[in-house]
Amino acid sequence: MSDLFFTVDVFKKEISIFKFSSLTVHHEKTLASKFTFDDMIYMSEDYVKGEYQKKMQEICNLMLKYVDIEKSKNEKITDLKVQLETEFGKNILAITCLSILFRTYQAQRDHLVHLGIFKAFKDGITKKITLEAKSIIENKFKELTDAIDMLIKCSENNFQQIPESTFMSDNGYIFECNKRQISMLYSLNESIDPLIHIFLTNLFIGNLKVFTCKNCRKRYFSNTDVGYCPDIKCQEEKDKELRKKNRMNRKKNEYTNLSDTLSNYTRQLKYKLTLTGVSEDVIAVYDAEKSSCLYNVKMQISTYQDCERPIDDDLISYIEEQKGHIKALYDSLSKQKGTEQ
Ligand SMILES: [Zn+2]
């Protein structure tokens, strides 16, 4: 069985789980899974809704029943573990708990096999050893359940109250693998506590708070309320809303509105002009005159805007005059198709 470790990146808000085949010989690690801090929220919500706890209880009961009996029953547990791994699917929290419980069971099982203890030949001492093995498995199950319950509780109050025990927890599980990369590795072989405690500590270090996405209503971690979660679809919604807001702001601005209206009008005329089939030279003449007109109008508007002078008849008639000028230009240019040929 390979060893499991994880690293935390507080800046990317990511947790990576690695597998080591042999720690003493090779220090090379393979990435087993990667998930975000937000996924920790989703996984704890999923844990509450799913049947993870019930299924963990079932496999634990079987372990207690079969730890000290013949080999075939042991295979049953291995099969069930594989089946549950598939069922637990993407909930890495649940899969990790399962892996830790199984590891504990396997260690106790190996211990009993090593001592040659089987149900059929029990005396006082072997009975005591068997009971001890069972209580180790049972305690591990309880410890895992308590840790997940604690995470769920934190999640339910948006991680606003992180238990003090998190900051006082024993750092014995820290394993510094590669100091050059300053990537601290934490063991996930014996307990789920490191994952939960280090995660909670990092929320504190990163000053991360929980917000609700305006689009999908899922919760996400951020330093400030940015409206939307990092999901691509929600980010697209955010861009859409931003564009809408900009449009609205622009509309609100009546000065800009004036020049926009004229600009739209000249664009429509240009489109009509191209439909008449005139040459590019003619279009260029139109473009040059249009740009100069728009420039004049914008300059005129800005003299009003700069001193917050209200729009008056003078300005309106100036714009109308420029508009008429462009219209006259369009009329004469659109007739040039015939003369060109
Ligand atoms: Zn979202």
Q: What sort of overall outline do the alpha carbons produce when their principal axes are compared?
A: elongated
Strand order of the largest sheet: 3-2-1-5-4
The helicity comes to 55-70%
Secondary structure tally, helices: 12
Rg, please?
35 Å
Mean pLDDT: 87
In this entry the ligands are: zinc ion
User: Structurally, how many domains make up the residues?
Assistant: 3
Number of strands: 7
Low-confidence stretches: 174-182
Find the structural class using helix and strand composition. Answer: alpha+beta
Outline the biggest β-sheet. Answer: 5 strands, antiparallel
Regarding quaternary structure, how should these chains be classified?
single chain
Beta fraction of the residues?
Answer: 5-15%
Distance between the termini: 86 Å
Q: What is the H-and-E element order?
A: EEEHHHHHHEEHEEHHHHH
Question: Any overview of this molecule?
Answer:
By secondary structure, the chain is of the alpha+beta class. It folds into three domains: 3-205, no CATH class; 209-247, no CATH class; 253-340. 64% of the residues lie in helices and 11% in strands. It has twelve helices and seven strands. The strands form two sheets. The protein has a five-stranded antiparallel β-sheet. A two-stranded antiparallel sheet has the order 6-7. A hairpin with a 6-residue loop joins β6 and β7. The longest helix is centred in the middle third of the chain and has 33 residues, at 124-156. The protein is elongated and about 115 Å long. The protein starts with a strand and ends with a helix. The site of zinc ion has 8 residues, from loops.
